[in-house]
Each structure stands twice: as structure tokens, then as C-alpha cells.
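hi! just following up on the protien thing from before. the input was this:
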Amino acid sequence: MVATEPDVELSVVIPLLNERDSLRELHRELTDVLGRAVESYEVIFVDDGSTDGSWEVLRELAQEDGHVRAYSFRRNFGKSAALAVGFRKARGRFIVTMDADLQDDPSEIPRLLARLAEGWDLVNGWKRKRRDPWSKRISSKLFNWAASRVAGLRLHDFNCGLKAYRREVIEAVHVYGELHRFIPALAHWLGFRVTEQEVRHRPRRYGRSKYGLGRAKRGLFDLITVLFLTRYGKRPLHFFGVPGLLSALAGTAILVYLAYQRLFASVYLSNRPLLLLGLLLVIVGIQFVSIGLIGEMITEAQRERMPYPIRESLEGASSE
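and the predicted 3d structure came back as:
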């Protein structure tokens, strides 16, 4: 949860890993745009264990510009961890996140803030014309198609790094693992108003993409996590209980059938693999239901700490 009170208008949070060559140019562009767009701002860089000298550049930028704040991890912990630290350190009423590779255009920030001014809580960037290899574009389309259906939120580009938030969103959404790409889905689940805005996507000029097969695999697992959190997080027994009940019923039906054969047809069961299948299904069913019940107990124990964001409060003065 964010601990500090907002005392600037805008915080720009930028996670990075080995982006030394792009940092000064990105800083120049941000300074030019933000100086004209908002009254007060800060730029927060979170170095996720870079080994190319990025931290030395950030140290120089922080010394030269009082708007710059920077934090460095001892090793690579991932983008979600970097964003979580950036959110915790942010002091802005509004927060914008973007990547450090110069593919996100800082000149898009005023347009995102304008959408927040319309009443939206989170504005997700949409890189309609992507400047990426075809393989990455195809995998991104498949991912966004699956994520939209799992989350129940129609967005074209969940993984776009360029997003704008009201402070209330980052205080309510807990980011860990690889869930940074699903922040819009988690915010939508909590009742925040989420929309998207088409943004310019520029070709990569320095370094190389961090995308790989390992990242795709983690994205798949986190998609399952989001499915569970958004649809069954408050009722885990419904998630585990249905397959458990079906498995137990199927196993029980098999065992009843075998018992009938043994008692009334004198069929021996010692060489019947069906007996083992029936027992296995019953045991698996009981385990699934047990996991669901344990989940319900954990959920009940944590209920007081669950976030229920309040849009507005009306509290009259108490009378004597």
C-alpha cells in the first residue's frame, strides 16, 4: 500500500533493466513535456538490477535535476517488483507508468491525463501500430484476446507499459509476480473505471527486447492467477468444489457399479483397473473440496484486510 500523501500533481514511474543508452534522451523528452503539461511532477526510475551502467546515469540525472528520484535493486526482481516500489515511493495525485526504452512516447502523457480528467480511474495505452517483430505482434494479439475474455474487460493491449492512474488505483491494487500486465483487469475487478487510449509506439533504438519464451510462460500462469482472483478470489470453494464434486460423484458411481457386480453377479474385482480408477476419483474429489474449504477459511480470516475501494463518502456531523 502507498504510504505517502500526494504532494505533487504527477508521478512518472519508470522501471528499467539495462537501458543506459536511452535514459538521458528519455529524461530530456520528459522534462520538455511535463514542464508544459503539469504544475508539479516527479520522475521515479526503478533500476531492476541493471548491469550495463544504467545506475551511474541515473545517479547523474538525480544530481542534475531535482525532479528525478531513483532506486536500485541489488538484483533483478522483475517488472512487477519495480512498479510496486515505484508506486510506494510515488507522491503524485496522478501516476503514469512507461518503459525506459524510448518506444513509449512521453508526448502522449497529456492525452492520458486528459482522459483521467474525464472521470476515468485508469487509462491503458493501446499501441495500435506496433513497431515490433511480427512474432511478437502475433503473440501479443493472442495474449490480449485471452486476457480480455478471462478478465471480462475488453482491452486491445493489456501489456502496454504506458498507463495513467488515479492514486486510488495504485493504493488498492497489489502487484506481484508478473501481474503488472493485468493491473487494468485487477482494477476493473475492484470497481474502478478503466478505458484505453491509442498511443504512438516508436521503433526500438537502443538495447534489445526483454521478451522471450520464459516471459510468455509466466504470462500464461499469471492469466490463470487473474482468472482465480477476479472470479473466485472471494469464493474459492466454487473454483475447487465443482471439479471436486464431479470427480467424487464419478468415482462413487463407478464404485457402486462394481459393488453391484460383486454382490449380485459374483464378479471378482481383484483384476479390475476400474476399481482403482473409482477410488482415485473419489480421493481426488475429496482433496479438491478440502482445498476449497481451506481456501474459504483463509478468505474469511483475511476478509477485514480485503480492499473495498470507496468512490465517495458522505458523513454528517454528529450531534450532541
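Residues 236-305 form one domain.
The longest strand covers residues 8-16.
cheers
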